[in-house]
Write a structure and sequence with these properties.
The protein folds into two domains: 2-99 and 241-270, Leucine Dehydrogenase, chain A, domain 1 (Rossmann fold), CATH 3.40.50; 103-237, NAD(P)-binding Rossmann-like Domain (Rossmann fold, 3-Layer(aba) Sandwich), CATH 3.40.50.720. Helices cover 39% and strands 19% of the residues. The protein has helices spanning 17-28, 44-53, 78-83, 101-113, 129-140, 153-162, 196-204, 224-232, 240-255, 261-270; strands at 2-8, 32-38, 58-61, 75-76, 88-92, 95-99, 121-125, 145-149, 166-167, 182-185, 212-215, 236-237. The strands form two sheets. A six-stranded mixed sheet has the order 2-1-3-5-6-4, with helices on both faces. Strands 9-8-7-10-11-12 form a six-stranded parallel sheet. It is globular, with a radius of gyration of 18 Å.
């Protein structure tokens, strides 16, 4: 019997991961389960330690703890160490190793969309662990220019200093046309109700050459990123493809079993 979990704030209860991974376990014939845990910020270290105590085989980490869990892990993968963010934990006896599968999920979603970042310009919204993973991959794939805008300016600046890129303030985005071949939303906001100020900024942006808008969220009834894509007659992709690819990588790290990301994507769309 293998037990997995997700560590987060109240948003862990809204995640698709518990139901998704439970279905995957059932399909491949591994006895197990997956549960969400809401963790108080002051007790994240205790929560990570409890993975050992409770014999949890592996964990996902969601906002706002992708950076906060890192000091409590025994080993970090090279990618997680460079990016400075962990979304997957693997337990090997009492050893906890942190990985970042957000990065590979995003990279493979770009491939699904037929978008090649090399030599192109990118505008990334976000200041947390997902934004770091996105910026890392865009740099890895040789994007020529990477602009990073975040509601938390201090953390957005930290992202470009850690990896690469240029910080731009949200206020400056309405000053004139922006040369961005791809716009990526790595914030948690997509519905205007969630972030009305950000929705106004995005709606007012002038994008001169945008070829793809990719919102790493999914399942929003109203989506101002999708509205922007429609106004520009630009392709739009939500976060389900990224989630499917990162879930496949995470499951392989936990169990050694390879699952086709397309199978996972079909499952997500059906549920």
């Amino acid at each position: 019997m293998m037990v997995f979990c997700i560590l987060g704030d109240a948003r862990a209860y809204q995640s698709k991961s518990p139901a998704l991974f439970s279905r995957i376990l059932n399909r491949v014939g591994i006895p197990g389960g997956y549960v969400p845990f809401k963790v108080d910020p002051a007790r994240i270290g205790e929560a990570v330690h409890s993975l050992r105590v409770l014999n949890i085989a592996g964990a996902n980490v969601t906002v706002p703890y992708k950076e906060a869990v890192m000091p409590y892990l025994d080993v970090l993968s090279e990618g997680a160490n460079i990016i400075g963010s962990v979304n997957t934990i693997v337990r090997d006896n009492d050893i906890l190793k942190g990985y970042n599968t957000n990065a590979i999920g995003f990279m493979n979603a770009l491939r699904d969309a037929g978008f090649e970042p090399s030599g192109k310009s990118a505008l990334v919204f976000g200041s947390g662990g997902v934004a770091k993973a996105v910026t890392f991959i865009l740099n890895w794939l040789r994007a020529e220019t990477i602009l990073v805008a975040g509601r938390n300016e201090e953390l957005a600046r930290e992202t470009v200093e850690r990896i690469r890129g240029r910080f731009v303030s949200l206020d400056s985005l309405g000053d004139g046309p922006l040369a961005a071949d791809i716009v990526v939303n790595a914030t948690t906001a997509s519905d205007p109700v969630e972030a009305p100020d950000l929705a106004r900024v995005v709606g007012a942006m002038s994008l001169s050459q945008c070829r793809l808008i990719l919102d790493l969220n999914y399942g929003r009834r109203h989506n101002f990123w999708q509205d922007k894509a429609q106004s520009l007659d630009t392709p739009f992709m939500d976060g389900l493809s990224t989630l499917a690819h990162q879930a496949a990588k995470t499951f392989a790290l936990w169990t050694g079993v390879e699952v086709d990301p397309k199978e996972i994507l079909d499952d997500l769309k059906a549920h």
